[in-house]
Every structure is written in C-alpha cells, then in structure tokens.
Design brief:
Blueprint: E1 3-7, E2 11-16, E3 19-23, H1 33-80, H2 86-110, H3 121-128, H4 133-186
Helix pairs in contact: 1-2, 1-4, 2-4
C-alpha cells in the first residue's frame, strides 16, 4: 500500500515498493508524462480484461445452448425408443446427471460477480478535487491495479466453470451417444 509522507512541507512523495515518486504540490503544474502513460496503459489493460470477461460469458452462452440442445435431442431419442434394459435406463440417468452438471457449471460461470471499472467519476470528484494531477493519476492507477487483480480472480472462476461445463458436456455426449446406439441396437422397449 502506498504511504504518503511530507518532506518539510515542500513536496509530497509517495513511497511504493522501496521507490519514492515525487509529487508536485503545485496544482497548476502538469503531471509527469510517465504518469499519464501508466494510467492510460492501465486503462487499456482493464478494457482488454473486461472484453475477455464478456468473451467468457459468450462462451458460456454457447455451451449452455449446446447443453440444452443435447438434452432435448437425448430426451426425444428416449421418447422415440425407450430403453429396453435397466442398464440402458441407468446409462440414460447418467447422461441426464452429466447434463445437469454441465448446466450447474454454466450457472456458476454466469453467476454475477463484482466487476469494477474505475475510475469512478463520483469518487474522483469527492476525494481528489483539490489534489495535484499526479496524485489523482496515482490514485486512479492504484485503483485500476486493484480492480485488475479482482478481475483476474473473476476471470479464473469463469474459465474454471467453462472447463468444468465442457467436461460434463463431453461425458454426457459420449454416454448419450452410446446409450442411443445401444437402445437402437437392442430394438428399444418391447
């Protein structure tokens, strides 16, 4: 966490990770160009991350559509030719269970998580109205860094949910195909 200190009231310094960055108390003096570059690059990284989160949500949507299509097709197949043996019925139950597991993992992926997109204009105005430009840029950059790390956690959880959903859907597809083929081969219920 950055620590603010004052040196004889002449300048404001931010100490962060053993380095000291001097901040000018003069509000009319423009910020150091590096401060703007860092903040702009941080905002661009955060925008890319938010796009990645949207992409993961889209992938979860496609996975959900595939899961519902598999479930509908499998139920139609079972309705057309019911299983002839208890083993085939048990296999059908396993397919439905794996499909349910895929749907639960998709729900986990879609579950709303807090995603912040700083800077918050209201917070900037209320907290940093009279601060020097470099201090505002530092505050925005620090908030972006914190939000980026929070977003990485959300991204990992969404990716895990999608991988788990794909795994469940894969098992459901293989077992469903096997069940339908065995039902067809056995002639269905008699």
């Amino acid at each position: 966490m950055p620590e603010l200190r004052s040196d004889d009231g002449l300048q404001l310094a931010v100490q962060h990770n053993a380095s000291v960055i001097e901040l000018s108390p003069d509000k009319d003096k423009p910020a150091h160009p590096a401060a703007r570059v860092i903040t702009e690059m941080s905002m661009a990284s955060l925008d890319r991350q938010l796009n990645q989160l949207n992409s993961l949500d889209a992938k979860a949507s496609y996975l959900g559509a595939a899961t519902f299509a598999l479930l509908a097709g499998f139920l139609v197949a079972l309705t057309t030719k019911p299983p002839a043996t208890t083993r085939l019925e048990d296999l059908a139950v396993a397919v439905v269970a794996f499909t349910a597991g895929a749907l639960v993992s998709i729900g986990y992926t879609w579950w709303p998580r807090p995603v912040d997109a700083p800077p918050n204009p209201l917070g900037l105005r209320e907290r940093h109205w009279d601060d020097p430009e470099e201090a505002v840029l530092r505050a925005v950059s620090d908030r972006i860094a914190t939000t980026f790390e929070d977003g990485r956690t959300v991204e990992r959880k969404k990716a895990f949910g999608i991988k788990l959903g794909i795994l469940f859907l894969g098992f459901a597809t293989v077992l469903g195909t096997l069940d339908v083929l065995l039902i067809i081969a056995s002639g269905g219920a008699r």
